[in-house]
Amino acid sequence: MKEATGELNMTVVTVVAIAAVAAFFYAFVWPGIKSSIEANTYCAMAQCGNCTTKGTQQECECTATKDDGTEWSGKCKFQN
User: Fold this and answer.
1) pTM for the complete prediction?
2) What are the b/e assignments for 22-47, b being 16+ CB within 10 Å?
3) Which of 51, 56, 74, 75 is the most exposed place for a label (fewest CB within 10 A)?
4) Contact 58, 46 (CB under 8 A)
5) Following CA atoms 29, 79, 38, 50 in sequence, which dihedral angle do they give, to the nearest 10 degrees?
6) CA distance 62 to 45
7) pLDDT tens digits, 4-54
């Protein structure tokens, strides 16, 4: 019976550890990935202006229309 209890404890520890890693990813890592994907998507179809050049990179203020009809605005970076 002691062996079964030990295995149950290890299972609980494993499940809690996986849940903690998933919560950390969802709370801290995923928002950055999501906003990066969103910015790359909208920058590809954006109308840009007011650009500044920094070395080989150009940063522009851009706007794009989302699929739901709302407008996205942000800064897009392009390589020269």
Assistant:
1) 0.63
2) eeeeeeeeeeeeeeeeebeebbeebe
3) 56
4) no
5) 120
6) 9
7) 676 778 889 999 999 999 999 999 999 999 988 988 888 888 888 888 888
The structure tokens listed for 75 are 């800064």
Helices (H), the chain: 2-24, 30-44
- Please return the burial class of 17, using the count of CB atoms within 10 Å of its CB with bins 0-12, 13-18 and 19+: exposed
A 10 A CB-CB count for 14 gives 10
Is 45 in a helix, a strand, or coil? Answer: coil
Whether 3 has a pLDDT exceeding 80, the answer reads no
Pairing of strands 47-54, 71-79: unpaired
